[in-house]
Write a structure and sequence with these properties.
About 70% of the residues lie in helices and about 0% in strands. With about 130 residues, the protein is mostly helical. α1 runs antiparallel to α2 (about 40-70) and α1 (about 15-35) packs antiparallel against α5 (about 100-120). The radius of gyration is 16 Å and the shape is elongated. Pfam families: Hemerythrin.
Length: about 130
């Protein structure tokens, strides 16, 4: 289970809500991993990956619009990090998912959780207060 902490708030309500939804998606990955009654998880994994990809594209666009609107000086490097995350999600090995479902779920859960927390704390926190500048 991936828990939201107040320290992850960046102070921009719309972005904070979007981050919380990303945590919800990560928790669905965690729930899939924990579900021992579900033998073949392939279709569920693909569905949650599609949701993760689609929502991150939407979220990153909103975040990037905010940065552009407020002339964030590190916009391009931040955008590259977003692109790299999307590429990682887009280049999953479908055979690995099919052959080693729980192992894949552990790997993607660790990647998403670590990336998201690190990105929020180290990158997104820097856009806090842009509207006042």
């Amino acid at each position: 289970m991936v828990l939201w902490k107040d320290e992850y708030n960046v102070g921009i309500p719309a972005i904070d809500e979007q981050h919380k939804k990303l945590f919800d998606i990560a928790n669905r990955i965690s729930e899939l991993l924990a579900n021992e009654l579900l033998v073949d998880k392939y279709d569920h994994i693909i569905a949650v990956l599609d949701e993760l990809r689609d929502y991150t594209v939407e979220h990153f666009a909103a975040e990037e619009d905010y940065m552009l609107k407020h002339k964030y000086r590190k916009f391009l490097s931040h955008k590259v990090l977003h692109h790299e995350f999307i590429e990682k999600i887009n280049t999953v090995d479908l055979n690995q998912i099919d052959n080693e479902q729980n192992l894949y779920l552990k790997e993607i859960l660790n990647y998403v959780t670590e990336w998201l927390i690190s990105h929020i704390l180290q990158e997104d926190k820097q856009i806090t207060g842009l509207s006042e500048k």
